[in-house]
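In response to reviewer comment 3 from the previous cycle, which asked for concrete evidence that the modeling workflow produces usable outputs, we include below a single protein chain processed end to end. The sequence was submitted unchanged, and the resulting structure tokens are shown without manual editing.
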Amino acid sequence: GMVAPLPALRLPSLAIFRHGLYTQFIVSRWFATLAIQMQLTAMGWQVYDAARAAGQTIPQASFVLGMVGLSQFLPLLVLSLFGGQAADRYNRKFILMACLAGKAVIAGGLALVSISGALPIIPTVLVAAAFSGAINAFLPAAASAFMPMLLPRGELPQGIAWSSLAFQAGTIVGPAIGGLLYALGPGAAYGATFLLLAGGVALMMRINAPPQQPVQDARTV
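The workflow returned the following structure tokens.
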């Protein structure tokens, strides 16, 4: 027989938040998006400031700032093939928790280094950016595959709309909050990032998702 078409997408309705698991997922995802943007902003400023403090010109400091983006992008590029496969093969909730916990560890590490001055900041941030990029290869695929497990099929378009809205809002608000906190000190920005990510992990841990159907044609590279 014919497959019933999905309902047309209307303006997002608040009714979807009666699904408790989905609501926890969205809040967790929003915390994570906010935190990641805050951390990126702080990393950029910190590297730029450190380069300028070391006597580099504005173009030289800007180049070092660009290296933060490159350090994050290269592992993401290399590992993104595996991110989708991991989401098909392994427990998505566990992948999401591991990704958020990994990012929390990075934020905590950056906060400690910033406050203590124990390590040279530019190499530390570049290494942190590389690890962060590696985690980014696994996070979106697992999140995209996990969300449909938390909603009835008919409400999936609504769920996707709200998820997208949460992501966009976090992407816009995150850098602004990150910049304001960075003005208090890098440790403040990284500390807040750590708390948000820890909250995201706690929320994710409480989601008892229905069992995941194994994907039959999960390919290996």
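Helices lie at 20-53, 58-89, 92-116, 121-136, 139-146, 156-184, 186-205. We consider this sufficient to address the reviewer's concern, and the full set will be provided in the supplementary archive.
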